């Protein structure tokens, strides 16, 4: 039974013109190779499940990405391509950047077999990053602006780190002062450091 998710239709329709043929092709090959696949949306991107996560795709401003959840166990001999961009085959700017349909179908069936057998991916444990000390000038500015300080404290560790590293990374005093002023302004507005890049 074909299970399509209207959110995936919408995602493809809203994609840039270059991306639509790539996403439509991937979707068709996945459904052809795995008739029991279930479409969904995870992390805001189309995802395809078959007895667990199978693969997913996404578009960006100038390229698409497609990846298998168990990439290292599915795709052999393509090492390095995945380093060019997120996903199993690097930056995809046209359908020609993908493996041939038969090869892609073979990978999909291999991923299905792994899920059929209940094979789990052993992911390397991440080592916690060392805390970056808050620059004294930034700390002083936060002390003078309690609202900004409360916002920073309420952020996740990664969002706090972005601000702290940005300030600490300034090479010149003037640059640091400019960054601190901007940080205080954004924090008073409740914005994370990379707010400009977050989707609404």
Could you explain how this protein is built, in words?
The protein has 2 domains: 6-116, Aspartate Aminotransferase, domain 1 (Alpha-Beta Complex), CATH 3.90.1150; 136-197, no CATH class. The protein is α+β, with helices and mostly antiparallel strands. The model has no long low-confidence stretch (mean pLDDT 87). The chain has 8 helices and 4 strands; from the N terminus they run ααββββαααααα. A hairpin with a 3-residue loop joins β2 and β3 (53-59).
Notable characteristics:
alpha+beta; four-stranded antiparallel beta sheet; 11% strand; 45% helix; Aspartate Aminotransferase, domain 1; single chain; 200 residues
Average pLDDT score? 87
**Approximate helicity band:** 40-55%
In the CATH hierarchy, the third-tier topology of the largest domain is known as Aspartate Aminotransferase, domain 1
Low-confidence stretches: none
Topology overview:
Elements: H1 6-14, H2 19-33, E1 38-42, E2 45-49, E3 53-59, E4 64-68, H3 71-74, H4 101-116, H5 136-144, H6 146-154, H7 157-168, H8 173-188
Antiparallel strand pairs: 1-2, 2-3, 3-4
Helix pairs in contact: 2-4, 5-8, 6-8, 7-8
Put the structure in a nutshell.
This protein has 200 residues and is α+β, with helices and mostly antiparallel strands.
């Amino acid at each position: 039974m074909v299970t399509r998710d209207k959110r995936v239709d919408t995602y493809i329709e809203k994609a840039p013109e270059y991306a639509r043929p790539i996403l439509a092709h991937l979707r068709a090959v996945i459904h052809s190779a795995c008739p029991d696949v279930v479409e969904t949306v995870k992390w805001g991107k189309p995802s395809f499940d078959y007895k667990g996560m199978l693969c997913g795709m996404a578009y960006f401003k100038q390229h698409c990405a497609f990846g298998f959840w168990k990439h290292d166990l599915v795709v052999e001999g393509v090492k390095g391509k995945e380093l060019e961009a997120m996903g199993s085959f690097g930056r995809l700017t046209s359908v020609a950047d993908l493996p041939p349909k038969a090869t892609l179908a073979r990978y999909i069936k291999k991923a299905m077999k792994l899920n059929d057998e209940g094979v789990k991916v052993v992911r390397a444990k991440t080592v916690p990053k060392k805390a970056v000390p808050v620059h004294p000038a930034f700390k002083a500015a936060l002390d003078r602006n309690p609202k900004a300080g409360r916002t920073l404290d309420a952020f996740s560790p990664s969002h706090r780190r972005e601000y702290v590293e940005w300030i600490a990374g300034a090479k010149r005093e003037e640059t640091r002062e400019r960054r601190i002023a901007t940080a205080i302004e954004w924090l008073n507005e409740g914005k994370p450091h990379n707010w400009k890049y977050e989707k609404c």
